[in-house]
């Protein structure tokens, strides 16, 4: 039976309940720098083991990137970038290798922030990492420009030198600077007076010691 007198049984509400909920918008998939890794690649811990050539295919699938986590894929990506710029097979700590490892981390942070733009902690880590990489590349640029060019080309980095720091000169800033200079000068005078007094005291003690010996 239909009770039209009750508010919850009104025809409008009954019709509204029949409508389906609007479908939630699916988030657009963000491309990752790990997408180019082949699923058949082995994890970093098992890639160079000779026994992997004789194990079963099921074991290889378990130990491959097909079932690996994001962290394990990142290890393989770091190794690939390091192989592009390292000076020798035993080079594990040069500036080029450090830049390659840092680049893989920064790209992972960039992808994370595209999905979670309000994550301020990781945004701060990203900015700090970018500043550190810029300084390392600037050092490479000064000491070995050829290595710097190769590193940027192999890792796909577009280097932009830091802009010189400029400050707008205002009357308040000039007054504050003059006051700071004056305070510094007065402090230096006080330190010089203290050093002079201490030197004279040492000379007096040394003179008194010589007179006692005589």
From TrEMBL:
Its main location: mitochondrion. GO terms for cellular component: mitochondrial small ribosomal subunit. GO terms for molecular function: RNA binding; structural constituent of ribosome. It is found in: Mitochondrion. Keywords: Mitochondrion, Ribonucleoprotein, Ribosomal protein, Transit peptide. Gene3D superfamilies: S15/NS1, RNA-binding. Transmembrane segments: none annotated. GO terms for biological process: mitochondrial translation. This is Small ribosomal subunit protein uS15m. The lineage of its organism: Eukaryota, Metazoa, Chordata, Craniata, Vertebrata.
């Amino acid at each position: 039976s239909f009770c039209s007198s009750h508010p919850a049984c009104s025809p409008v509400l009954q019709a509204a309940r029949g409508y389906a909920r609007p479908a939630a918008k699916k988030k657009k998939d963000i491309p990752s720098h790990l997408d180019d890794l082949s699923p058949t690649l082995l994890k970093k811990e098992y890639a160079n083991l000779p026994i992997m050539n004789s194990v079963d295919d099921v074991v290889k699938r378990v130990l491959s990137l097909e079932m690996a986590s994001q962290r394990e894929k990142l290890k393989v990506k770091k190794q690939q970038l390091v192989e592009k710029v390292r000076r020798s097979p035993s080079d594990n700590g040069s500036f080029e290798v450090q830049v390659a490892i840092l680049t893989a981390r920064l790209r992972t942070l960039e992808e994370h922030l595209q999905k979670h733009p309000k994550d301020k902690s990781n945004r701060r880590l990203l900015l700090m990492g970018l500043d550190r990489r810029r300084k390392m590349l600037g050092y490479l640029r000064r000491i070995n420009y050829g290595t710097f060019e190769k590193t940027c080309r192999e890792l796909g980095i577009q280097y932009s030198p830091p802009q010189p720091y400029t400050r707008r000169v205002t009357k308040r800033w000039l007054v504050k600077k003059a006051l700071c200079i004056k305070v510094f000068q007065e402090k230096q005078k006080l330190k010089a007076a203290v050093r002079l007094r201490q030197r004279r005291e040492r000379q007096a003690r040394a003179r008194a010691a010589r007179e006692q010996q005589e």
